[in-house]
Specification:
3 domains; alpha/beta; about 30% helix; 7 helices; about 20% strand
C-alpha cells in the first residue's frame, strides 16, 4: 500500500500471484517483541480491519524493523492508511471516462534531470480529477521514454560551436528514434484498439525533442499536457481560478523570400533580434508573445494559460496556411516552458503546414537542431 506496488502479479514471471502481506499497525501481541504492541489498543481489536494494512514484503519488513519503529509510529501508520484509503475511494468513484494513459518523457536539460516517476505523474493526474490507466501491454507504467542515457547528450552541450552542432545532430538522431519507437509501438496500438481514450503528457527534455514528441501524438485523442512548477516542485496544475494569460501572434518584419520565414516564440523569455542567426535575419519574421503580460519562466500559472497559447499557435499556423501558401519552411526560435514545446508540436500538421526547423541555443548562439515534418512538395 505505501509503495503503490501491484501485489497481484509477479514482476519476473508475469503470472498472477498473491504478493501482499497483512501487517498490523498495533502489534497483534502485547509481547514487548511485537512491533508497536505496547499501544493501549484493546487486544480484541487488533485483528480488525482498522488495524490492518496490506503491504509488500519489503515494506512490511521495514515498518516492523526494530531500528525503524521510531519512524513508523502508530499515528504515522494510521494516517498513511487513511490517506491511501481516501485516495482509493476517490479513484474508484471516477467513471471509465476519467481514465488517462500517462506518457512520461525524461531527458537532461543543461545537464540536469528531474524526478518524474510513475507516482509523481499519478499524483498530478489524480489532482486533475482523472486516474492513470496502466495497461498490461505497457508493463503498468504507461508509456515511459527515458532519454537520459542516450549517447551524445553531454557532448551536445559542448562549448565549441562546431563540436556542439555535430554532437547535436548525432544526439537528436538517436533520441528521435527512441521517441518514435515508444509512440509507434506502445501508444498507437492502444489508440488503435480504442483502449486509450485520453492521454496525459509529462515531459522534461530539451525543447526540440518535446516539440517532436508533440508532433507524434494523435490529434484526435483528447490530451492534457502537464507543466513542472518550479516553486511548488510539483507537476499538478494549480486551481483554474488563477490569472489566465492571453497570447498574440503578429508579423514584425517583411521579407522577399516566399518559401521561408521565422517565428520567434517569446513566452518564458525573450530572444532579442540581435540573437537571430545571420542567415535568417532577412526573412519574414513573426513573434508570439504574451498579451499584456511580462514573459517569464512561470508564465503558465494554470492549465487555461497553456490552452490559450496552444490556440494562438494553432490560429497562427492556420493563418500561414491561408496567407502564405508558398511557405515551405518555418524556422522556430523558442523561448517557451516545456509544456508549450509539446503543445507546439501537437498543433503542427505535417501534411498541411510548412516544415518546422527547431533551433536551440548551443555554444552561445542559436543553431538548427531538429526538423519536424517534411518540406511540402
Amino acid at each position: 500500500m505505501l509503495c503503490n506496488a501491484y501485489l497481484l502479479e509477479g514482476a519476473m514471471s508475469g503470472r498472477t500471484l498473491l504478493l501482499g502481506e497483512v501487517a498490523h499497525i498495533v502489534g497483534q501481541s502485547t509481547d514487548p517483541r511485537s512491533p508497536r504492541g505496547g499501544d493501549p489498543l484493546d487486544k480484541a481489536l487488533r485483528d480488525e480491519a482498522d488495524n490492518l494494512m496490506l503491504l509488500c514484503a519489503q515494506q512490511h519488513m521495514e515498518i516492523d524493523a526494530k531500528a525503524a519503529l521510531d519512524a513508523f509510529t502508530v499515528e504515522w501508520l494510521r494516517r498513511a492508511k487513511q490517506e491511501h484509503e481516501d485516495r482509493v475511494r476517490y479513484l474508484t468513484a471516477l467513471g471509465p471516462e476519467k481514465a488517462t494513459t500517462v506518457v512520461r518523457m525524461v531527458g537532461s536539460v543543461h545537464g540536469n534531470a528531474v524526478e518524474l516517476s510513475r507516482e509523481t505523474a499519478a499524483d498530478a493526474v489524480t489532482a486533475g480529477r482523472r486516474f492513470p490507466l496502466y495497461l498490461e501491454s505497457y508493463n503498468r507504467h504507461g508509456v515511459e521514454i527515458d532519454l537520459r542515457h542516450t549517447p551524445g547528450e553531454q557532448a551536445a552541450a559542448a562549448w565549441d560551436a562546431e563540436a556542439a552542432a555535430e554532437a547535436s545532430r548525432h544526439y537528436y538522431r538517436q533520441a528521435t528514434t527512441v521517441i518514435e519507437d515508444a509512440v509507434r509501438h506502445r501508444l498507437r496500438p492502444g489508440i488503435e484498439r480504442e483502449s486509450v481514450q485520453h492521454v496525459s503528457v509529462f515531459g522534461f527534455a530539451r525543447l526540440p525533442l518535446l516539440v517532436y514528441l508533440g508532433s507524434l501524438l494523435d490529434d484526435t485523442v483528447p490530451t492534457d499536457i502537464y507543466q513542472r512548477h518550479r516553486y511548488e516542485q510539483s507537476w499538478a496544475w494549480p486551481a483554474e481560478s488563477g490569472p489566465v494569460t492571453d497570447f498574440t501572434a503578429h508579423q514584425v518584419q517583411a521579407g522577399r523570400d516566399e518559401s521561408e520565414a521565422v517565428v520567434v516564440v517569446n513566452v518564458s523569455g525573450v530572444i532579442a533580434p540581435c540573437e537571430i542567426p545571420q542567415g535568417l535575419s532577412a526573412l519574414r519574421r513573426y513573434e508570439v508573445t504574451p498579451a499584456g503580460a511580462q514573459t517569464g519562466p512561470d508564465i503558465l500559472q494554470c492549465r487555461a494559460s497553456l490552452r490559450q497559447l496552444e490556440e494562438t499557435l494553432r490560429l497562427f499556423l492556420a493563418r500561414l496556411e491561408r496567407e502564405a501558401k508558398s511557405l515551405r519552411r518555418l524556422h522556430v526560435l523558442p523561448a517557451v516552458p516545456l509544456s508549450a514545446a509539446v503543445a507546439l508540436g501537437r498543433v503542427h500538421h505535417p501534411q498541411v503546414h510548412p516544415q518546422l526547423v527547431i533551433y536551440e541555443r548551443l555554444a552561445g548562439s542559436y543553431m538548427p537542431t531538429l526538423e519536424v515534418g517534411r518540406v511540402p512538395g
